[in-house]
Amino acid sequence: MRSPVFAALLLFATNALAIGPGQAELCFACHGRGGVSTTPLTPSLGGQPSFFVVAQLFLFRDNRRGDSATAMVEIARGMSDDDLRAWGEFVSKLSPPGPPASPPDAVRVARARTLLEREHCAACHNPDFSGREQMPRLANQREDYLVKALRDYKSGARIGYGNAAMAEAVSGLADSELLDLAHFLAFLPAGAQTNSSR
């Protein structure tokens, strides 16, 4: 069952305006040139689904994210619904980040792959972790940011769309397992998929 927040977001997640180059610099200042972050604990935005971006900006605007991202709350506070749609469309057209240049830890990757298949993460985030609708792209996201997000969902510091899907998904996982998942997703090679999308 969809939450009231999710239902409200569906009403204005299309028909975007355009974002100009000057406005884009506001985004790139923290999230990196072209939406590929080089700043610790700051996510890359390139390739995120438009609806996901709209939803996150909506949550920031209404101070519903339940975390300490006060800068984003301030930035989003004055955004209109049209602004949210414009940013969602803009971000979705940025090229997604690629994997880090260094090789991943093969043992951690194997452990994470087993976890991802057991927990059916691909059912929501797509088998290649490209994200869809309100589910974020996880492939090649910053590892430190993924660790923070997973820990925040587990502790309840970060909320979603009025339901506890992510908190429930990670509630039974040890911190070492969260670290392995973040490592795998950060280093995910292009075209890689898990076997389970149930």
Could you characterize what this model shows?
- With 198 residues, the chain is an all-alpha fold.
- The chain folds into 2 domains: 4-92, Orthogonal Bundle (Cytochrome Bc1 Complex, Chain D, domain 2); 106-186, Cytochrome c-like domain (Cytochrome Bc1 Complex, Chain D, domain 2), CATH 1.10.760.10.
- The protein has helices spanning 4-10, 21-31, 50-61, 70-77, 81-92, 106-119, 122-125, 143-155, 165-170, 175-186.
- Residues 1-17 have low confidence and may be disordered.
Q: What percent strand?
A: under 5%
How much helicity do the residues have? 40-55%
Under CATH, the homologous superfamily of the largest domain reads Cytochrome c-like domain
Mean pLDDT value: 85
The rounded distance between the terminal residues' Cα atoms is 18 Å
Helical stretch tally: 10
Low-confidence stretches: 1-17
- Number of individual domains: 2
- Please write the string of helix (H) and strand (E) elements: HHHHHHHHHH
Number of strands: 0
- The value of Rg in angstroms is 16 Å
CATH architecture verdict of the largest domain: Orthogonal Bundle
User: Which shape, going by the Cα principal axes?
Assistant: globular
Reading off the top of the CATH hierarchy, the class of the largest domain is best stated as Mainly Alpha
Structural class: mainly alpha
